[in-house]
Design a protein that fits this description.
By secondary structure, the chain is α+β, with helices and mostly antiparallel strands. It has helices at about 1-5, 20-55, 60-100, 210-220, 230-240, 280-285, 290, 305-315; strands at about 110-115, 120, 130, 135, 140-150, 155, 165, 170-175, 180-190, 200-205, 270, 275. It is about 40% helix and about 20% strand. The strands form three sheets. Strands 3-2-1-5-8 form a five-stranded mixed beta sheet, with no helix packed on it. A five-stranded mixed beta sheet has the order 4-10-9-6-7, covered by helices on one side. The relative contact order is 0.11.
Length: about 325
């Protein structure tokens, strides 16, 4: 059991593997609370054993009763006040490091909107829109503005900072300043419906030059397929009501129900990290999304001929 519990401590979604200063502060606070909790557990367990042994051997019941009152007074009142005061001091020490960024203190703002059940990511000042993948430049103070389009969600990348709730009608913010290039997993941490467990995201931290190149490309409209199966797929996309739910910039498709698909071919996963973005998985997702992600708002298109679904896959894969 201990091995199973410990195996999660080194994962890409663990507070015990911090990579930023705020995450390290949270990690220190967690270990401090864990250590205090273990010490208290040991003391209480020891006192219970001691009380059991002494009561069986006790001859002076008045003295045993007085000792019981002392234990109750010390362990039930004095000790909790001291322990809670110490832990509160730890919390006060950590709070400035994880507070929302002050206006003007960051170099980049990224807007993240939670939907049932995916993440919409926008970069104000550009036309770049993506889903479930938050690209950031390394060694840059970034302000994440979190909102929800429906119910309460919660944005949490454990290795980077604390979680923040996404409340209807409100905006919350958090700062991410990641020094190391890499990919970090995040998750909605507030139950938001049947698709909650499969509402994950990736924070992809790139060198600043690579990030700017990526951002410039994502801001561009989709390229028009030159012919063949991809062109047939585009025509199928427009005629199969896909455009009513999805946006592909540079085309008449401007739906707002599902994720923006302008550059879906460049994404690593589908359905909020549920499955890798491969031709086979994309075909199966179009055919029967409920099999992959029960509760998804995406309707299945099993009624379309196989050739039409393959054309859709060819078109979407070409949207890099």
């Amino acid at each position: 059991m201990l091995l199973v519990l410990g195996s999660g401590c080194g994962s890409n979604q663990s507070i015990t593997s911090p990579v930023t200063d705020p995450a390290r502060e949270i990690d220190t606070l967690w270990w401090a609370m864990f250590a205090v909790g273990m010490v208290i557990f040991g003391i209480v367990l020891g006192l219970l054993v001691l009380a059991y042994v002494r009561r069986r051997r006790a001859t002076d019941h008045d003295r045993a009763e007085r000792m019981s009152y002392a234990v109750i007074l010390g362990g039930g009142m004095v000790a909790p006040v001291i322990v809670l005061a110490v832990l509160f001091a730890f919390v006060i020490r950590v709070m400035p490091a994880v507070s929302a960024p002050k206006p003007g203190a960051t170099s980049l703002t990224v807007e993240v909107t939670g939907h049932q059940w995916y993440w919409e990511v926008r970069y104000p000042g550009t036309d770049a829109v993506t889903a479930n993948e938050i690209h950031l430049p390394a060694r840059t103070r970034v302000r994440i503005v979190a909102r929800t389009a429906d119910v309460i969600h919660s944005f949490w990348a454990p290795r980077l900072n604390r979680k923040i709730d996404m409340i209807p009608g409100r905006s919350n913010s958090i700062e991410l300043d990641v020094p190391k290039v890499g990919t970090y997993r995040g998750q909605c941490s507030e139950f938001c419906g049947v698709g909650h467990a499969e509402m994950a995201f990736r924070v992809i931290v790139q060198p600043p030059d690579a990030f700017r190149t990526w951002l410039d490309h994502q801001a561009q409209p989709a390229e028009t397929p030159s012919g063949g199966q991809a062109l047939a797929g585009q025509q199928q996309f427009m005629s199969a009501s896909c455009q009513d739910c999805h946006t592909i910039r540079g085309t008449p498709a401007d739906g707002r129900v599902g994720p923006d698909l302008t550059h879906i071919g460049s994404r690593r996963t589908l359905a909020a990290l549920t499955i890798p973005n491969t031709s086979r998985n994309l075909f199966q997702w179009i055919t029967n999304p409920q099999w992959w992600k029960p509760g998804s708002r995406m309707p299945g298109f099993a009624s379309l001929p196989v050739s039409a679904r393959r054309a859709l896959v060819a078109y979407l894969e070409g949207l890099h």
